[in-house]
Amino acid sequence: MSGLLRVQDLSVRFRTMGSLKALATGTKDPYIDAACGVSFDIRKGETLALVGESGSGKSTIARTVIGLQRATSGSIIFDGQEIGALSGSERKPYLRRMAMMFQDPIASLSPRLTVRSLLGEPFRIHGLRDIDAAAEAARLLRMVGLPEDFACRYPHQLSGGQARRVGIARALALNPDLLIADEPTAGLDVSVQGEVLNLLARLQNELGMAILIITHNLNVVRHMTDRMAIMYLGRFIEVGSTELIFEHPRHPYTQALLAANPDPDPDAVLNRIELKGEVPSLMRRPTGCEFHTRCRYAQDICRRVFPDHSTSSDHTEHSFRCHFPA
Amino acid sequence: MRHEDPTSHSSAPSPPLLEIRGLDLDFGTPRGRVHALRNISLNVPAAQVVGIVGESGSGKSTLAYTVMGLLPQNAVVTAGNILFEGRDLLEMPSQTRRNLLGNRLSMIFQDPMTALNPVRTIEGQMIDIQHHEKISRSEKRSLAIQMLHRVGIPDPQSRMGGYPHHFSGGMRQRICIAMALLVKPALLIADEPTTALDATLEVQIIHLLKDLQKEIGCSVLFVSHHLGAVAELCDRVAVMYAGEVVEQGGVRDIFHNPAHPYTRALLECDPGRIRQKTRTLPTIRGEVPNLLGSKEGCIFQPRCPQAFGRCTQDTPIEYRIGVEQAARCHLLNEKGLVSR
């Protein structure tokens, strides 16, 4: 499989307060790094998951890749072309080959447009005027398993699962090479969640696009993805094949996250690793290893020295940032 | 004033703390009446954790709100009783019922971001909730500090002067739990208390609830759609579908030996239970029925893989299986699994 997207050393920095407030409160550094030196690549037809708790920077990375957010530094190379520095109109042909499914299915559909106009939007935006919008809408609805008469409906007439399907249909309208799915199943019930994931899997088989899934639901990750990256405070702390990471997580945070996935069995042996405290603020990143404030293996060195990426001896694609990997 | 229930020490089996009997509830809408709860019977024994699971729209939150008396104005209880400590909540004068809230009954809400008053300090809100207690303000304050310390708020003495926006989501849910348990209620109703939180915080909150429930000895009605959390926390489970309790029983019965086809389908759908990696996940075909107007037959029949003739005509009664388990399914009767 060849590379489709390569992200190198990507950082995204947000200003948290105006210069006057910074002066008044004596803040020297009124910035947070929502993403901090992140590198990864996605091959054609592959599925990669970004996993992490709220505020870990997953959505920021997705928004930066698709150009809704400017990167502060680093490069985004899509199909051999650096697109991070391109201007809006130069970027457009590449954006046509990427699509995004947004987190809130109902809110991401304009309430005043019918499903037919919503599905026609990608064509209009990319200037494809010689297209039969009605026929395209019917084709897309069939593709995601909705009846064709749904074209006349408005978003408020759709259930959560149906709105997701329309979101998928719209994202796949232009047959993209990369689909970015931001929490594709958040807020859905387990039975509907299965339907949406099965649909995504089927369409990936048929159309062969790569998928970047952003989620905190580890069950989704285990069944849907080839590789996964675990994020903490805007950095990747462990990356590798999903199977390997579930089998043998190396970073203590990954271990805790996997153990926090409650087993729906009352007699399950609970070897929960309960983390102390909460995620630290991005304004006050801990020194050394940023996870040491919650880590049960933390030693003196963890408080002082920032751990570098190390790789597993037998699987070079599996890398993690920890002084004392399991 | 709190009294120990004298019956709890006698040898006779004590009546359940909360007993819901044949409860029907409708919502009036412009298109007609929505029968949101139908024939709900459910017991919460003293000092036990009872879980209510179901998908969105199954009526689990409506049930919790009915017990608390927090329903919107278009809700009408058309039949049934809710007995709390032997007295019917629906029959008593509204002032008497009001006095039970924040005293014998308390509640934790789903969203900790909106459950607290944003313009008052935590201290003020925690002192207010003890308005039933006849103790001095400084005693109330020190009880509040103790409770905040117990739920894991660091340095409560100085932090309780802060406003809700000074705290993160997990901290706020801890404060809500502290407030709900500060009055030492007999029954705590928790409506999806971990849904708005991240996975690692969810674990912390579930452990905290479990520990505090044991310490205080209260009962908990735990509403959740998260099967993993229910399996871990609850003693008994009621499964709701489209406004009915389709199955209830001990937590092991429900998870290891589900009797109703819906319970089985729900458990099968949970990807957490599928050990083998798969790209096609099980689903429940069809959709949740519209509850407008009257329905004949079993409510799950249109989606049930095992439905047969009788299911379209008769509404199944609650058949008992074993000692504690009961389910509304004609198949149990057909197969002779019902215990008398």
How would you describe what is shown here?
The complex is a heterodimer of chains A (326) and B (340). Helix content of chain A is 31%, strand content 22%. With 326 residues, chain A is an alpha/beta fold. Chain A has a single domain, classed as Rossmann fold. Chain A has an 8-stranded mixed β-sheet with strand order 6-7-8-3-9-10-12-11, with helices on both faces. A 4-stranded antiparallel β-sheet of chain A has the order 2-1-4-5, covered by helices on one side. The longest helix of chain A is centred in the middle third of the chain and has 18 residues. In chain A, 43% of the residues are buried. In chain B, 32% of the residues lie in helices and 22% in strands. The radius of gyration of chain B is 21 Å and the shape is globular. Chains A and B meet through helix 7 and helix 8 of A and helix 7, helix 8, helix 9, helix 10 and helix 11 of B. Chain B: It catalyses: Ni(2+)(out) + ATP + H2O = Ni(2+)(in) + ADP + phosphate + H(+). Chain B: It is a peripheral membrane protein.
Which descriptors would you attach to this protein?
A: 326 residues, alpha/beta, Rossmann fold, 4-stranded antiparallel β-sheet, 12 strands, B: 340 residues, 8-stranded mixed β-sheet, ABC_transporter-like_ATP-bd (chain A), ABC_transp_ATP-bind (chain A), transport (chain A), ATP-binding (chain A), P-loop_NTPase (chain A)
Strand content of chain B: 15-25%
* Broad shape of chain A: globular
CATH top level class name of chain A: Alpha Beta
Sheet with the most strands: spatial strand order of chain A: 6-7-8-3-9-10-12-11
- Specify the biggest β-sheet of chain A: 8 strands, mixed
Cα distance spanning the termini of chain A: 30 Å
Distance between the termini of chain B: 42 Å
Strand content of chain A: 15-25%
Report the strand count of chain B. 12
Structural class of chain B: alpha/beta
